[in-house]
Write a structure and sequence with these properties.
By secondary structure, this protein is an alpha+beta fold. It folds into 2 domains: 6-43, no CATH class; 51-152, Enolase-like, domain 1. It is 26% helix and 27% strand. It has a 4-stranded antiparallel beta sheet with strand order 4-5-6-7. A 3-stranded antiparallel beta sheet has the order 2-1-3. Helix 2 (100-106) packs antiparallel against helix 3 and helix 3 (113-122) runs antiparallel to helix 4. The longest helix has 18 residues, at 135-152. This is Xanthine dehydrogenase subunit XdhB. Keywords: FAD, Flavoprotein, Oxidoreductase. Pfam families: CO_deh_flav_C. Residues 53-151 form the CO dehydrogenase flavoprotein C-terminal domain.
C-alpha cells in the first residue's frame, strides 16, 4: 500500500492492494481472493528520488513474534515541506490501513512539529476499536509521530 504495489494472480492481473485486500469492513476476511486463486507475483512501484522510508513496530516482549501495531512511513521532503507522504499501518484491523487523512495533513505542509502533530491526530480518524484493543490507537499515534519525526530529521 505504501509503495503502490500491484498483485498478479493465476486469475487476475495488476490488482491494487485495495482490490487484493478489500476495504477491511468485513472483519471475518483478510483478503479478497477467490477460491483457488493464487498469488503469482507482487510488483512494487518505482522509488521516488530522495525518498525516505521508515518502519517500526510495537511488540509485547513476551509475545514478540506478532506486532501489536506496525507502521511504515514513506516521505519525500524538499524545500522544507512534505512533498510525498504515505502512512500505512498493520495489526490494528483485519487488513493493513492506509491513513489518508494523516497523509493529507502533512502533504505539501511545512516540515515542523505542528504539521507532524496534525498528521498524528488524523492517524486515528474514524477508528472504531474494540474495547480490548483501544490501547492500539495510542501505540499507533506514537509510532506515526516517531516515524514522521525520523523521516524529517
Amino acid at each position: 500500500m505504501a509503495y503502490d504495489a500491484t498483485v498478479t494472480t493465476n486469475l487476475r492481473q495488476r490488482l491494487t492492494m485495495d482490490q487484493m485486500l478489500g476495504d477491511g469492513s468485513n472483519g471475518s476476511i483478510d483478503h479478497a481472493l477467490s477460491p483457488g486463486e493464487i498469488i503469482e507475483s507482487i510488483e512494487l512501484g518505482i522509488p521516488v528520488a530522495n525518498e525516505r522510508a521508515l518502519y517500526r513496530r510495537a511488540i509485547s516482549r513476551s509475545y514478540a513474534e506478532w506486532p501489536l501495531v506496525e507502521v511504515v512511513v514513506r516521505a519525500v521532503i524538499a524545500d522544507g515541506a512534505f512533498k510525498l507522504v504515505r502512512i500505512v499501518s498493520g495489526a490494528i484491523a483485519p487488513v493493513p490501513i492506509r491513513h489518508l487523512a494523516a497523509e493529507s495533513a502533512a502533504q505539501g505542509a511545512a516540515v515542523n512539529a505542528a504539521t507532524i502533530a496534525k498528521a498524528v491526530a488524523q492517524s486515528t480518524l474514524g477508528a472504531k476499536p474494540l474495547a480490548m484493543t483501544a490501547y492500539k490507537l495510542t501505540l499507533l499515534r506514537g509510532l506515526v509521530q516517531d516515524l514522521l519525526e525520523g523521516a524529517s530529521a
